[in-house]
Amino acid sequence: MKVYKFGGASVRNADGVRNLQKIIGDEHNLFIVVSAMGKTTNALEKVFEGVQHGDPQTSMERIAELREYHAAIINDLWHGPKQLERVEALFAELERIATQTDYDPRDAELWYDTIVAFGELISTSIISDYLAFAGTPNHWIDMRRGFRTEQRHKDAGVDIAASAPLLRAEIAAAAPGIDIFIGQGFIGGAPDGSTTTLGREGSDYSAAVVANILDAESMSVWKDVDGVMNADPKIFPDAVQIPELNYLDTIELAYSGAQVIHPKTIKPLQNKNIPLYVRPFGDKRKPGTVIRGISSPVEVPILILKKGQVLLTIRSRDLSFVLEEKLGTIFSLLERFRIKTNLVHNSAVNLSLCVDTTWHIDEAVAALREAGFDVLKTDDMELLTIRGYTEELFLRYAQIGPKVFIRQTTQSTVRVVRKQ
Ligand code: ASP
Ligand code: MG
């Protein structure tokens, strides 16, 4: 079995879906993982916000736009007006949920997951029907049943051991002779039966878990870039493609904010030593980037800019030494609110943490204050990482200036926390 993953950008229009079918070609034994089309997940977040703010009007408007957007893709694919029953049913269900009046703010994350999951349910339904129509029989899998996740919403991890028999049963349910499977990225089911999501951009991780469970020979992520680049070409000119990476470097890159692959993707692959190909959607013949256990060393510097950061400067009110006495308390509090720390800097009594902005950041700050710390929170920060920096890059990007709050330098890596 091979696993192919197609992101939202790759299936954002009818051409994208046709191209997906071209890439599948006459392959067999394929598990295809697909994200929501285009920017659907962002739009569904707005649907959720309408529910959250008691504003069904907004939710219904967003749903109407999504209906139109998907209908245009369907009509294009079928060369004329076409209604897909299962897609209609999904939209009807989404509308029902969005206009339900028993919203309880304590269940915000459950509502979020339930609503946002529709993007992938809709995209995979369209693509599965289209593939069948275009001569590629396939079996659609509901990953809410195929994946058992933790009982946590918005950022759930998949319980691989518990999911393995479920996913295999879903596969076994296919009609005889069918060996192409299609499932949603990004979503799963909690032990209590509710829908969960795996964190924004989590479809890569879904595909990796599928690959792990099915002992796949490889996983390929089809993207609108030629492969993994050493920098975001939109931000840093002169970006070049990296032909090979190892798992470890890839985790470091993803963690630093490189948009190559979701950071949780590598572990399930590494456990089974499955190679990961990042390949250009537009041209199947191009080699892309291969990621595996061992690779030749990366020969170019790598530049990564991670936006949406907050700097927390934490000091205990009794002036105890932060590393010796307080570290455990601080990090277990942050873990409780699922705050992801990207950089740590300390003095005797201060601990500075560069963390991701999330829903729970203010609650975490309040809890830290409650626990006896003074906390200074600085918003709108970004974290720049340069691995394998040269003197020239250092001078160009890592100079201390009024916007720079922290700079950390080792022999090979420099990291800068600065105002956006
Ligand atoms: N559709 C989800 C998102 O946009 C998951 C993904 O694309 O990987 O975050
Ligand atoms: Mg997406």
Write up this protein.
The chain has 420 residues and is α/β, with parallel strands linked by helices. Helix content is 39%, strand content 23%. The protein has helices at residues 14-24, 40-52, 56-77, 85-99, 108-116, 118-133, 143-146, 160-172, 203-213, 247-256, 266-272, 322-336, 361-370, 391-397; strands spanning 2-6, 30-34, 139-141, 180-184, 187-189, 195-197, 218-223, 244-246, 276-280, 289-292, 302-316, 341-346, 350-356, 373-387, 404-409, 413-419. Helix 2 packs antiparallel against helix 3, helix 2 (40-52) runs antiparallel to helix 5 and helix 4 packs antiparallel against helix 6 (118-133). It is globular and about 65 Å long. Bound molecules: aspartic acid (ASP) and magnesium ion. Aspartic acid (ASP) binds at residues 7-8, 35-36, 41, 119, 185-186, 200-203.
Rounded Rg: 23 Å
Relevant CATH superfamily of the largest domain: Acetylglutamate kinase-like
Shape: globular
User: What is the number of strand segments?
Assistant: 16
Structural class: alpha/beta
Task: Write the H/E string, N to C.
Answer: EHEHHHHHEHHEEEHEEHHEEEHEEHEHEE
| Helix segment tally | 14
Cofactors, ions, other ligands: aspartic acid, magnesium ion
Mean pLDDT: 95
End-to-end separation: 44 Å
Q: How many structural domains does the protein architecture include?
A: 2
